[in-house]
Write a structure and sequence with these properties.
Helix content is 80%, strand content 0%.
């Protein structure tokens, strides 16, 4: 396996293990075993677990940024783009029920550890916040765009946490439907405001 492919497999495996097991309890040996390489080969690519964490966070930000960009490039309206963001919960339903939200769980764990990687991990939330704010601005909600973005983030994180706590209940589906109804109301309110001016 080429060095770049090995490095990518290490980051991908670490990403999965950090999500499913947690950052703190995942060891070098766990990642090396999942990748199928020796520890010596592993250390060629990463000297510390924090280096792996940095690579995992960078990968998550890149992947999410590309996903968000595809929605815009796919000619979705701002409202449709926000609806796609809300539906991430449904797309990741099974994972969320078993392991929670990958963004929220990682940040919470690093915060409990007072880990220096917290600001980088918060970068995922920052990416979502800025992207959502811009979509609401494009919908004409300039004054409260950031508050609306934070509302979606807060509600989706809360829904993911409770779906993980109550995995056998149809809680997540209900929350997604209510968030989509809320989005319709926000868009309708803006449409009415524009008609009245």
């Amino acid at each position: 396996m080429a060095a770049s492919a090995t490095r990518e497999k290490i980051v991908s495996s670490a990403d999965q293990l950090f999500y499913e097991r947690g950052f703190e309890v995942t060891s070098f040996a766990d990642v090396a075993e999942m990748v199928g390489i020796s520890r010596g080969n592993f250390y060629y690519h990463f000297k510390t677990k924090d280096e792996i964490l940095d690579a995992v966070i960078a990968r998550r930000i890149k992947d999410r940024d590309e996903m968000l960009g595809r929605w815009i490039d796919g000619d979705q309206t701002p409202k449709q783009s926000v609806a796609s963001f809300i539906r991430i919960l449904e797309m990741n339903n099974k994972k969320i029920r078993s392991s929670g939200c990958p963004v929220g769980t990682l940040f919470s764990e690093l915060a409990k550890l007072n880990h220096p990687g917290r600001p980088a991990a918060r970068g995922l939330f920052d990416l979502f916040r800025v992207w959502l704010r811009r979509r609401f601005e494009e919908m004409g909600r300039h004054r409260d765009a950031d508050a609306l973005a934070m509302h979606i983030l807060a509600r989706s994180q809360g829904a993911a946490t409770l779906a993980n706590a109550y995995p056998d209940e149809p809680f997540l589906e209900t929350e997604v439907a209510q968030m989509l109804a809320w989005l319709d109301a926000v868009a309708d309110q803006q449409d009415q405001t524009q008609q009245d001016t």
